[in-house]
Amino acid sequence: MDTVHPTNVMPFPNGEIGVVWSDGHESYYPGHFLRCACACAGCVDEMSGQKTLREDRVPQDVHALAIHPVGNYGMGIAWSDGHETGIYTFERLRALCPCAACSSGSDP
User: What single DSSP character describes residue 3?
Assistant: First the structure.
């Protein structure tokens, strides 16, 4: 079975990032939520897996300045707070979908 992947990624003026997936599902991620979900070595301790990013230090109005593909498995985001080292794999990005159907564990 093919892995679900984005077919369209759109940053919105309100800071949200919209993703249309290959299975037709649509995800809308608030900028602050997605920025705080970064799993790079600067935001999560590599040895313990503990989050080191202080969410209260991320501006509430953080938004994407640029979004670029990373291989065939993810995307990188340059954020307005200067952070740009995280890679959001498609699998992780889909797991982070905040919609009611995904949050409840039912199929979208």
Answer: P
Residue 1 lies in a domain: no
The CATH number assigned to the domain holding 75 equals: 3.30.2020.30
pTM of the model: 0.90
* Per-residue pLDDT reduced to its tens digit, 71-108: 999 999 999 999 999 999 999 999 999 999 988 766 55
Q: How far apart are CA 16 and CA 97, in angstroms?
A: 12
pLDDT in tens, 35-46: 999 999 999 999
What's the domain range around 32? 6-103
Alpha carbon distance 9, 80 (integer Å): 17
